[in-house]
């Protein structure tokens, strides 16, 4: 059976369960490739709930710098039994299926034209970790470690990312490093590597940074001089205010006095949040709110007041797919204009 052969030009898709801690591990995978000088374009597909429903994270690796999605998945990391059949069907012929084989599956669950890579992730984590939550969380880091061997991702890059994320948190740093090493050691000893798809160091990233749209909007508010944010949580815009708070903690604190030079208020609803932003603008502050389609609908009266009183207000509308109140997490540019 032929296998897909590609260097710095392939698609890896992770199929996980929401709330399992997979998002940060999958993002770590994408960041590590970017740090090796190879452009990546991830896409997070997640449900509107706390945990339990399917979630996917698709990473396009492309040295040429193309960011849009393309057809086909070269490697599927299938970690969700609920979506197994659909996930396996999505793999391109000659592609790769990585999965947890702690519990063997019948042959009918696999495809003859796909290379199967099984690793007993649950068994490994159960043997090392006593806490059930740790078993689940570190399972994600273990498979990232295995993938770093299979795809020849530099482990020192991943270790560097851990160092940045857990600076001053030595206990967390050590446990994540342990999980990464568990995955690498198993892959080196028991799996055939490298695969036909792999990563080689390049110098094609330039000045690009790894950032999602909401964080980029928040950073734009900081550099645009915003000092006031009032918001009410609504998917998928909530992380705008959270990112703004994070950036302000670094860039809006007086170095001499330690005083905050910003105000962030989580209001009781969308109407209150836009009212606070209008009031701040009326008093001369650069202020903004972040919401989605239903929130904008609730804000119309205060938006009208700002219009007639000529008060500068910034409203960030993170779009939902429609119609009506929309689909909070099915990401697309699809607000309906009637």
Describe the structure.
This protein is of the alpha/beta class. It has 2 domains: 6-198, Pyruvate-ferredoxin oxidoreductase, PFOR, domain III (Pyruvate-ferredoxin Oxidoreductase, domain 3, 3-Layer(aba) Sandwich), CATH 3.40.920; 213-317, Rossmann fold, CATH 3.40.50.970. Helix content is 39%, strand content 20%. The chain is built from 11 helices and 12 strands. The chain has helices spanning 22-35, 84-89, 121-128, 132-150, 155-165, 170-190, 213-223, 238-251, 270-282, 293-298, 300-309, and strands at 6-7, 9-17, 40-45, 54-62, 73-78, 91-100, 115-119, 197-198, 228-231, 263-266, 287-291, 314-317. A 6-stranded mixed sheet has the order 3-4-2-5-6-7. A 4-stranded parallel sheet has the order 10-9-11-12, with helices on both faces. α8 links the parallel β9 and β10. The chain starts with 5 loop residues before the first strand and ends in a 21-residue tail after the last strand. The mean pLDDT is 93.
């Amino acid at each position: 059976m032929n296998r897909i052969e590609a260097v710095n030009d392939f698609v890896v898709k992770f199929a996980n369960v929401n709330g399992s801690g997979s998002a940060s591990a999958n993002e770590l995978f994408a960041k590590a490739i970017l740090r090796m000088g190879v452009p990546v374009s991830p896409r997070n597909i997640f449900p509107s709930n706390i945990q339990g429903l399917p979630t996917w994270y698709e990473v396009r690796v492309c040295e040429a710098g193309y960011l849009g999605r393309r057809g086909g998945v070269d490697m599927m990391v299938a970690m969700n039994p609920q979506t197994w059949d659909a996930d396996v069907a999505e793999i391109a012929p000659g592609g790769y299926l990585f999965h947890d084989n702690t519990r063997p599956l019948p042959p009918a669950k696999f495809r003859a034209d796909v290379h199967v890579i099984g690793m007993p992730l649950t068994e490994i984590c159960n043997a090392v970790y006593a806490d059930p939550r740790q078993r689940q969380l570190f399972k994600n880091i273990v498979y990232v470690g295995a993938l770093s061997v299979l795809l020849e991702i530099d482990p020192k890059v991943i270790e560097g990312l851990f160092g940045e994320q857990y600076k001053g948190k030595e206990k967390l740093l050590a446990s994540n490093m342990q999980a990464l090493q568990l995955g690498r050691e198993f892959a080196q000893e028991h799996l055939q590597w490298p695969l036909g798809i792999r990563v080689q160091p390049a110098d094609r990233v330039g000045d690009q940074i790894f950032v999602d749209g909401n964080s980029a909007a928040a950073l734009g508010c900081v550099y645009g001089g915003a000092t006031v944010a009032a918001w009410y949580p609504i998917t998928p815009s909530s992380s705008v205010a959270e990112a703004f708070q994070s950036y302000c903690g670094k860039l809006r604190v007086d170095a001499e006095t330690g005083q905050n030079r910003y105000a962030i208020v989580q209001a009781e609803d969308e109407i209150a949040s836009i009212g606070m932003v209008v009031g701040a603008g009326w008093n001369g502050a650069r202020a903004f709110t972040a919401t989605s389609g239903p929130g904008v609908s609730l804000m119309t009266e205060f938006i009208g007041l700002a219009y007639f009183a000529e008060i500068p207000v910034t409203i960030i509308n993170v779009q939902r797919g429609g119609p009506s109140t929309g689909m909070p997490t099915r990401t697309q540019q699809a607000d309906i204009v009637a």
